[in-house]
């Protein structure tokens, strides 16, 4: 298990049913089908999905409805949805034991999102910093979906009454909104414990993977240089070549953490090694202190190929069998709907929607 903590919150009455099964709760997490998954996506999210599945009931979805808040090529969206699902499975998620599905196959997400659009306040949405960043200066020309998608994100979580959500720094504000919506719904309709106040799962020493060509910029699929990132589908030769060509500086390896922090390219490679080896970065710095970059890069290459090679090979195999991936997604959607449908029915009754 990774080093995971939960923030201090009030007692959660929804946890008892999971504790009785020897579990810590229910997790919902999703990844957008943007394609070209890279090392940053793997270390920041996908590998943790498999690590959590023995301790929680897990629902992992490909959030294709979130993806279309900006225009997507339909054929590419379908292919990328399968690619993300393949990555979940290749990283070790058990699709038989847990629900792996794409969001659009479970209509309850959208149905609950409309109710949350009516619960959330305009002022809350106006404070969402990600919308401001994504909309940029042309705010009047972006889709309504891009503005309202935090309410859909809240519905993604609460349609399953998820007790925990893994979050990074860029998603903490959206989880806070989810909690605000749950509290307001519960208060507005006089159902104090209907929706849980979902707790964040925060991974110790958050992994922020930077570009191999510029240690001051985040690793990104949109970077024009393929040498800036390690793709999950890269083979051993590609991984080795990219690490060999990764930007460094003329000095030997840093000898202290403070020295590493002043050298972003070296610090990034040390962080990647630490994350892949499940080591503290200080321990990696101590191991390679004063050595030549060539020696360190050789060790990093061996480690990366060992850790990522099997994942990439399995992804490639699964992507050549789309029928199998589709069957996993279909079965996962059935599991998800079995949970979501009765919760939505309770929401409808609570709100006063008539269902004769």
UniProtKB/TrEMBL annotation:
Signal peptide annotation: none
Gene Ontology CC annotations of this record: cytosol
InterPro entries per the UniProt record, alphabetical: aa-tRNA-synth_I_CS, aa-tRNA-synth_Ic, Rossmann-like_a/b/a_fold, Trp-tRNA-ligase, Trp-tRNA-ligase_bac-type, Trp-tRNA_synthetase
Pfam families recorded: tRNA-synt_1b
Keywords in alphabetical order: Aminoacyl-tRNA synthetase, ATP-binding, Cytoplasm, Ligase, Nucleotide-binding, Protein biosynthesis
Gene3D superfamilies found in the cross-reference section: HUPs (3.40.50.620), Tyrosyl-Transfer RNA Synthetase (1.10.240.10)
SUPFAM superfamilies: Nucleotidylyl transferase
Motif ('HIGH' region): 33-41
Binding annotation for ATP: 32-34, 40-41, 168-170, 209, 218-222
Main location: cytoplasm
Reaction equations catalysed: tRNA(Trp) + L-tryptophan + ATP = L-tryptophyl-tRNA(Trp) + AMP + diphosphate + H(+)
Annotated coiled-coil segments of the chain: none
Motif interval(s): 'KMSKS' region: 218-222
Enzyme Commission number(s) from the entry: 6.1.1.2
A single MF term (Gene Ontology): tryptophan-tRNA ligase activity
A Gene Ontology BP annotation from the UniProt entry: tryptophanyl-tRNA aminoacylation
Family, as annotated: Belongs to the class-I aminoacyl-tRNA synthetase family.
Subunit and interaction comment: Homodimer.
Protein name (database record): Tryptophan--tRNA ligase
The encoding gene: trpS
């Amino acid at each position: 298990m990774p080093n995971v903590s939960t923030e201090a919150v009030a007692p959660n009455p929804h946890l008892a049913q999971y504790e009785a099964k020897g579990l810590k709760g229910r997790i919902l997490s999703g990844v957008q089908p943007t394609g070209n998954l890279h090392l940053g996506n793997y270390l920041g999210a996908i590998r943790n999905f498999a690590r959590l599945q023995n301790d929680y009931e897990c629902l992992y979805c490909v959030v294709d409805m979130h993806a279309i808040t900006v225009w997507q090529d339909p054929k590419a969206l379908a292919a990328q949805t399968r690619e993300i699902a393949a990555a979940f499975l290749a990283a070790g998620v058990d699709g038989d034991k847990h629900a792996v599905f794409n969001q659009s196959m479970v209509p309850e997400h959208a149905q609950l999102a409309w109710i949350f659009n009516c619960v959330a306040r305009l002022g809350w949405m106006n404070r969402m910093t990600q919308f401001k960043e994504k909309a940029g200066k042309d705010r009047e020309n972006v889709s309504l979906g891009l503005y309202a998608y935090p309410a859909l994100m809240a519905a993604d979580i609460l349609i399953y009454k998820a007790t925990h959500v893994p979050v990074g720094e860029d998603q903490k504000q959206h989880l806070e909104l989810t909690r605000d919506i749950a509290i307001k719904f519960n208060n507005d309709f006089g159902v104090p414990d209907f929706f849980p106040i979902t707790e964040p799962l925060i991974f110790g020493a958050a992994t922020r993977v930077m570009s191999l060509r510029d240690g001051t910029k985040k690793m990104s699929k949109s970077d024009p240089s393929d040498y800036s990132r390690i793709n999950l589908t890269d083979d051993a030769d590609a991984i080795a070549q990219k690490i060999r060509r990764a930007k460094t500086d003329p000095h030997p390896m840093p000898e202290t953490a403070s020295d590493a922090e002043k050298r972003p390219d070296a610090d990034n490679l040390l962080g990647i090694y630490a994350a892949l080896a499940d080591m503290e970065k200080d321990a990696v710095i101590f191991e390679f202190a004063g050595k030549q970059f060539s020696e360190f890069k050789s060790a990093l290459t061996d480690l990366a190929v060992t850790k990522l090679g099997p994942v990439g090979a399995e992804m490639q195999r699964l992507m050549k069998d789309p029928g199998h991936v589709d069957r996993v997604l279909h079965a996962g959607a059935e599991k998800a709907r079995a949970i979501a449908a009765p919760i939505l029915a309770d929401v409808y009754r609570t709100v006063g929607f008539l269902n004769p």
